[in-house]
Amino acid sequence: xxxxxxxxxxxxxxxxxxxxxxxxxxxxxxxxxxxxxxxxxxxxxxxxxxxxxxxxxxxxxxxxxxxxxxxxxxxxxxxxxxxxxxxxxxxxxxxxxxxxxxxxxxxxxxxxxxxxxxxxxxxxxxxxxxxxxxxxxxxxxxxxxxxxxxxxxxxxxxxxxxxxxxxxxxxxxxxxxxxxxxxxxxxxxxxxxxxxxxxxxxxxxxxxxxxxxxxxxxxxxxxxxxxxxxxxxxxxxxxxxxxxxxxxxxxxxxxxxxxxxxxxxxxxxxxxxxxxxxxxxxxxxxxxxxxxxxxxxxxxxxxxxxxxxxxxxxxxxxxxxxxxxxxxxxxxxxxxxxx
Length: 339
Description:
Helices cover about 75% and strands about 0% of the residues. By secondary structure, the protein is mostly helical.
């Protein structure tokens, strides 16, 4: 029993480290004036990484016993309800921010646009100010339900369904130039990446000997794929190069995280903590980026110096950390009073 618990703890540890690195890349990728090569490389795999992890942690024995209603309720509680809660909070924050810092009056037209963007899941700052990154929650909800259906009802044809859904996303990328409701276009690619994560776990593909080769192949594929990848926009450039870069770099990062997870150092502790608190960063990193930018230019000593992307990244991440600490403090107080 003890060895099983240690195995589960170790597994959760390296996955939290991977998610911690992944969420840092999310914040970094949203930083203004990021060098193009760094931006291009981050976007080639950072969102696929999260979908792969979602497939990796999928508990087939548990979820295949769920009925549709139970699975819907669980996924809605985990992803859909937070999506609408965070969208509502960001609506208030965006209107307040625009009023205070940009002197933009609050209008019914602006509120209507933001509400429409949220309901449609039109993940663009014109329609979902501050909170367009939460498209990820909607895609996890819908993609997760599709993935569950494939895993539950189509044991022998899982690879076929996953590949067909990937092809649907690619076809939409090539032939449809408008956003589908509920951000459905990248859902097929997300399901395929979840299936990749499931296969990585099932066949224990986190072999240390592949680490350097995977990084090399992944970086080369990312570099050769000249179009910037954006799963939010369902943009992939060369689909083959996208898949190679996304899978190789994600797999290499997971292998690296499993290697370093055995060391109990401050960096790993921080990354694990960050990886277990990703939801708030997804929801509010845009707001923190804009707020800390205004804060920077409010300081007399530095306001005449252009905000460098490295400083912007550090300030945004620091703001997110403060938000997490505050939220965890409030949550602990609420739970203590409830008991």
